[in-house]
Design brief:
There is one protein chain. This protein is of the alpha/beta class. It is 32% helix and 17% strand. It has an eight-stranded parallel beta barrel. Helix 1 links the parallel strand 1 and strand 2. Helix 7 crosses helix 8. The longest helix is centred in the last third of the chain and has 16 residues. The radius of gyration is 17 Å and the shape is globular.
Amino acid sequence: MAVSIWVGTSGFSYSHWRDVLYPSGVSSSRYLEYYSKEFRTVEINASFYRAINPNHVEKWYRDTPDWFRFAVKCPRSVTHILRLEAAGEPMKEFAQSLSGFGDKLGPVLVQCPPSLRADEGLLRRFLDSVPENIGVLAFEFRHDSWFDEHLVEIAASKGCMVAHDFGKRNALISYPGRIAYFRLHGPASDYSSSYSDDFLASLADVVSASAASKRDVYVYFNNDVGGCAVRNARTLIKLLEGACAC
């Protein structure tokens, strides 16, 4: 089985990335076109706040190469309002909104609020309500109670737990699952400042080990302020050269 390591950023439409990733005079309508010349994947976070405009999806599909992948964030109506309960109908609607991504659809990110405590029954009910065509799910739980070996295995049946550093959690963990997924929010969980070279080298080791287990690996930097995410993603890709396509 061909395994890929997908390294990118959380979002791409940032005017403060001019002269970091985008030429100073380029129109924002061409940001993704330029982004995809350097990175193979992006995490779409706008879907968390509002329904995705099908015209935007169509354009994103056109503007990216065949091998590009989109990770898409689950709506907050599901994760923060319904809190995963009775989510069958909204998840069905969300799945329909993803159809335009076609073969470029990567994982679906399910980011839960820090106040949501572990509940095995809730997790099982949610997984049972998710349409089969939605693809692989990546759960970013923010309450420590979820990181129980048994619950990690349940999440792995449809995807994986996300290794993340929100709230200063340890992101250098490879959880079992159909894929591996890492989210980096900045060294202080503040969406800014760059990671050290030592940290990125350690991350590269964990990512390489995850890929060695014959599964795709997704890594997204969310420290967009000052273009830190772009620089850190570039460094990680260099460190991973020769490990896998990334």
